[in-house]
Write a structure and sequence with these properties.
Blueprint: H1 35-56, H2 61-90, H3 92-100, H4 102-111, H5 113-147
Helix pairs in contact: 1-2, 1-5, 2-3, 2-5, 3-4, 4-5
Length: 152
């Protein structure tokens, strides 16, 4: 049998190399210029809002400590998960080491900063937001308790 004119066996384009079944590590980065300064400035603004609000309403300090600490922990989890996905997409063995060994996490971050710089910035900003919220909240509660007459 002859083939109809104009139809030929077309070769399939070469397949994109697969890396652990996930997209390439560079595909997991956000295409935003200035992402790291944006996250840093946002974290500083959130901490400033916390500080100003807690100064004006002392009874809201425990609530604010809880909310801002959980917000910081959520950012930490998002950043770590995002970085782990990038590490798994890079190489499954490296991803497992990244997720399970903290010393390897530090080494991987230092050697592959262009790939994991964005998620690790979110991770560290979340840690900072949570830690500073807890510390400043405790200091404000101490100062508030000392300002109450007869609380000594």
């Amino acid at each position: 049998m002859s083939e109809p004119s104009g139809t030929k066996d077309l070769e399939k384009p070469p397949a994109r190399p697969q890396t652990g079944g996930l997209a390439a590590p560079a595909d997991w980065r956000l295409p935003l210029r200035g992402f790291i300064p944006l996250v840093l400035v946002t974290t500083l603004l959130l901490q400033s809002v916390f500080w100003l609000w807690a100064r004006s309403v002392p009874l809201a300090i425990p609530y604010l400590v809880i909310v801002w600490s959980f917000l910081g922990l959520a950012l930490t989890l998002v950043g770590m998960g995002w970085a782990a996905v990038i590490a798994l997409a890079d190489d499954p063995r490296r991803g497992i080491l990244f997720a399970s060994l903290p010393p390897y996490l530090i080494w991987y971050t230092c050697t592959r900063w262009p790939l994991v710089g964005q998620p690790m910035t979110v991770f560290f900003c979340g840690l900072a937001l949570s830690a500073v919220s807890m510390w400043s909240g405790l200091e404000m509660l101490k100062a508030y308790a000392e300002s109450i007459p007869g609380s000594n």
